[in-house]
Design brief:
This protein has 611 residues and is an alpha/beta fold. The protein contains 18 helices and 26 strands. It binds fructose -6-phosphate. Fructose -6-phosphate binds next to helix 9 and helix 16.
């Protein structure tokens, strides 16, 4: 959601800005724009700004042929305040055009600032919250751009990453961060600005991640960081963790298919160095919690949004199974609004691929504000949530570009396996059982590869269910989060309504919906509930409902003539991780069969940075 880029150096800025924005397209957006400073005939700096609704290629087509300026900022916008329209696209400018601003985040007191500015005679050109910043900076009487930005931000409350350009100070861009990421890329006599490393990696591998509350002046030859009181801060560039090839399609048709296929390697990476054979446990130093602290927790509460929440449900079950600590998962988006009781003997675990999901970040704030301990299972290194938690487990899945999450979710499942093993071995889980789980985790990467051997058949099945109006995904206990995630993925990219239900609940109502037109995808692991699951499947079949089972080789479904996709059996506690893989493939192939934009499903963004 929303992306920022900026350039200052010896080259024309526009090509970088356009390419950078293209790299940020995956985050989701509905309009885009750039502003470039160049000299006019009177050798005065003038801003050329172009904004369009739609894709970055439409912006590129609208740019003037000659746009030689060497300083510029750009933005992809996801509409929040005001509809997707050219007037609402960034950059926003002061009335005289001198100041240009791009902004990610939300300014909470925009309405009152706007009213005050309008009373003072300012005419607004957009419906956005961002525009107030452009006016506030322009109206400041401070003698430097930095001081004007500080003064403006002193009046603003909310979250932001922003970049400000001033015709009076064409040698610099001033940037600021509070609750939304901003990175300065360090080049050779040129500097780059981006809200996401994906925009930078083609140009530099050295970067500075601004801290919350930090600002910077960026010039062609360097940068200077400072805090909200204008005191200098000390920042050294670090090596960017993302490589160019991580962001390329590399011959795949879609990022989602590439990322699904990267799962075996991603799974190996999250496990690497974390399995301790000798003590049959997991090594999780990043949690920053010693054994005594970890033993003192009497409950585990897991928070995440969407698919991360569903994997959190898998994780809660793993923790209850292996560590025998009461655990549950909850949607982070609901958490802070129900006045949650924060207990000091509860371990809070937040789960997020992007580390930028606003709802999850708010939950972290709520827990910390009330004195709770919170650790994070996060993929993006240095992201907002990763910085705000007390410790955690990085997922190391590599960059995920497709909006529909796959490899990061699998690594969340594995990270929960590690956490449950670790907590279990601090309590009553025996050495033998610890080793059993450890060996199970080790087998998962190879077993994921095996699932892909069935891809062709899954594609055929997907082709058959793609035409449905609606589908059920059913599972129970460990299988239920698998069903929830399966249904989520299916509706997200195929746009076919899919509903997850506990298999045991089917007969209490939804069975009425079963007809030959309503397919059911049933998760039937080889466990103590298999016979009950099969009985429920028979009830569906008796009503002529088409049924596809996602199951294990040991479950006898042949006698019912049920279409079955099998995955290799692992340990019962870890089975949900592998059972999820065919549901990804089902959703993917259904979406392809229906001709949808698999990587950028309508209305959705990769990281949901607004409430
Ligand atoms: C589904 C999906 C979303 C995310 C959710 C949380 O495929 O990608 O449901 O899981 O928006 O995002 P993160 O994990 O970045 O916090």
């Amino acid at each position: 959601m929303c992306g920022i880029v900026g350039y200052i150096g010896g080259q024309p800025a526009a090509p970088f800005l356009v390419e950078g924005l293209t790299r940020l397209e995956y985050r989701g957006y509905d309009s885009a724009g750039i502003a470039v400073l160049s000299r006019d005939a009177k050798a005065k700096e003038k801003t050329t700004a172009v904004r369009t609704v739609g894709r970055v290629r439409e912006l590129e087509a609208a740019l003037p042929k000659r746009l030689a300026g060497r300083v510029g900022i750009g933005h992809t916008r996801w509409a929040t305040h005001g509809p997707a329209a050219e007037r609402n696209a960034h950059p926003h400018r002061s009335a005289d055009g001198r100041i240009s601003v791009v902004h990610n985040g939300i300014i909470d007191n925009a309405a009152s600032l706007r009213a005050a500015l309008e009373d003072a005679g300012v005419e607004f050109a957009s419906d956005t919250d961002t525009e107030v910043v452009a006016h506030l900076v322009a109206r400041s009487e401070a003698d430097s751009l930095e001081a004007a930005v500080l003064e403006a931000l002193g009046r603003v409350s909310g979250t932001y990453a922003l970049a400000v350009m001033d015709e009076r100070h064409p040698d610099r861009i001033v940037v600021a961060r509070s609750g939304s990421p901003l990175i300065i890329g360090v080049g050779d006599k040129e500097m780059f600005i981006a809200s996401d490393a994906a925009a930078l990696v083609r140009h530099t591998d050295r970067a500075v991640h601004l801290d919350d509350g930090e600002l910077a002046t960026v010039t062609a030859t360097g940068f200077h960081t400072f805090d909200q009181y204008a005191n200098a801060t000390e920042r050294t560039p670090v090596q960017l963790a993302v490589a160019v090839e991580d962001l390329e399609l590399s011959g795949h048709e879609h990022y989602m298919s590439k990322e699904m296929r990267e799962q075996p390697e991603a799974a190996e990476t999250v496990l690497r160095g974390r399995l301790d054979e000798r003590f049959a446990t997991a090594r999780l130093d990043g949690l920053m919690l010693d054994p005594r602290e970890l033993r003192s927790f009497r409950r585990v509460k897991i928070l995440g949004c969407g698919s991360a929440y569903y994997v959190g449900q898998m994780g809660a079950q793993m923790i209850e199974d292996l560590a025998r600590i009461p655990a549950d998962a909850e949607a982070a988006s609901e958490f802070r609004y129900r006045q949650p009781i924060i207990e000091t003997d509860t371990l809070y675990v937040v789960v997020s691929q992007s580390g930028e999901t606003a709802d999850t970040a708010f939950a972290v704030n709520e827990i910390r504000r009330k004195g709770g301990r919170v650790v994070g299972l996060v993929n993006v290194v240095g992201s907002t949530i990763a910085r705000e938690v007390d410790g955690g487990i990085y997922l190391h899945a590599g960059p995920e570009i497709a909006v529909a999450s796959t490899k990061a979710l699998t690594n969340m499942g594995l990270a929960f396996g590690l956490l449950a093993l670790h907590l279990g071995r601090l309590r009553d889980l025996s050495h033998a059982d610890g080793l059993r789980i450890l060996r199970g985790l080790e087998r998962i990467p190879g077993q994921i590869r095996e699932v892909f051997e069935s891809e062709e058949r899954i594609r055929e099945v997907a082709g058959r269910i793609a035409g449905a109006q609606s589908a059920f995904y059913i599972g129970r206990v460990r299988g239920f989060p698998v069903a929830r995630e399966g249904a989520q993925k299916f509706k997200e990219i195929s746009y076919v309504h899919a509903e997850a239900y506990q298999t045991s609940e089917l007969k209490h109502g939804p069975l009425a919906l079963i007809t030959p037109e309503m397919p059911t995808i049933a998760v039937i692991p080889d466990d103590e509930l298999a016979e009950r699951n099969i009985a429920a499947a028979e009830q569906v079949l008796a009503r002529k409902g088409p049924l596809v089972a996602v199951s294990h080789p040991g479950v006898d479904l042949a006698r019912l003539g049920v279409e079955t996709i099998t995955v290799p059996k692992n340990e019962p506690e870890l089975d949900p991780i592998l059972l999820t893989i065919p549901t990804q493939l089902l959703a993917y192939h259904a979406a392809v069969a229906l001709g949808h934009d698999v990587d950028k499903p309508r209305n959705l963004a990769k990281s949901v940075t607004v409430e």
